[in-house]
Structures are given as C-alpha cells and as structure tokens.
Write a structure and sequence with these properties.
Oligomer: single chain
Number of helices: 4
CATH class of the domain at 103-193: Mainly Alpha
Structural class: mainly alpha
Strand content: under 5%
CATH architecture of the domain at 103-193: Orthogonal Bundle
Distance between the termini: 94 Å
Number of strands: 0
Largest sheet: none
Amino acid sequence: MKTLKWCAAILLAFMACAAAAQQQQESQPQSTQQPEDSPAAAARRARENKKDQPKTQKVWDNDTLPASSGGVNVVGQNAPPTGNAANSSTGQNAQPAPGPAQSPEKIASEKAGLSSEIAAAKEQLQSLKTDLDILQRKYTLDQRSYYGKPNFAADKDGAAALKSEQDEIDAKQEEVAAAQKKVDDLQAKLDALK
C-alpha cells in the first residue's frame, strides 16, 4: 500500500511538471519561420551582397604564375618590341621565325617517342640510384669495420679498399647526375611539344 501511494505521488508530480512545461511553452511567443527567412532566401541575399562588393585583386603566387621551361616568369602582358630589337635575330625580344606547321600525327608520334625515351631514361636513373645506394651502404659498413679495429692505421689494404669504394661512389654519383640531366632534357622537349 505504501508503494502504491509513492507511485501515485510520483505520477502526480510528473503530470504537474509536464503541465507546467506545456504552459511555459504556450506563454512564449512562437517563432514561425516566414518564407523570407528560408535558407534559399538567405542564400539569394548572400549572392546579391557578393555581387555588390568590389572584386579583389588577383594574387600572383607560384600556383598562378604561368609555367615556363626556363628563364624568368613575367607577370602581366608582354611589352611590345621596340626599335631594332624586333628585327635583330640576336635581340632578347626577337621572335623565332615561324616554321612549317607540323601535322598532329607527327606531333603525336614525337610525343610517343619522347615518352618511351623518358620512361627508359627514368628506369635507368632509378637503377643507377639503387646501385649508388648499395655502394654507399657497403662503404658505410666497411668504414665502420675498418675504423673499429684497434690498429686500423696499420691496415694499408683496408685503407686502399675504402679509397677504391669512395672512388666508385663518386663515379656513380656522376652517372646519376648525367642520367638525371638526360631525363630533365627529355621532359623539357616533351613539354615544348604540348
């Protein structure tokens, strides 16, 4: 019986709280969304405000500068040639003589040929880099072994072997540099065809 009284008291308290909350909601002014406050209307107003604002100046950075195969990037329009510089073949503003137009098929075949050469050159470069890495690792291990001996200064054969390995590494680095230059040159030729 006591439990029943407690349950009834809790139920009555709950109902009273619910009624009070409902009265409080009814007493507050309801904010109905008018058609002018819809998201579409807000977006429309934002677009109209954006049109009224002055346009910002273009910012030039590495991403917006025109790409060139070499030389200096110039922002803006090219200056018109002046005086004898336009007629001189050695002047800085001299334009190359227009050559015969190449057919699209010939350009496509040149691109394909250059692409295959680039792929072969990159493969050769990667092979040389791998060889260089192996030589450098071997040199490091041999160097640690040589200098780890208590009387390494007396080991003339070990010193000669280290010197020989260092010479091999230097030669391989020159080969890698030459292969990298070849890849870069071929890539520049391919970019010039585009």
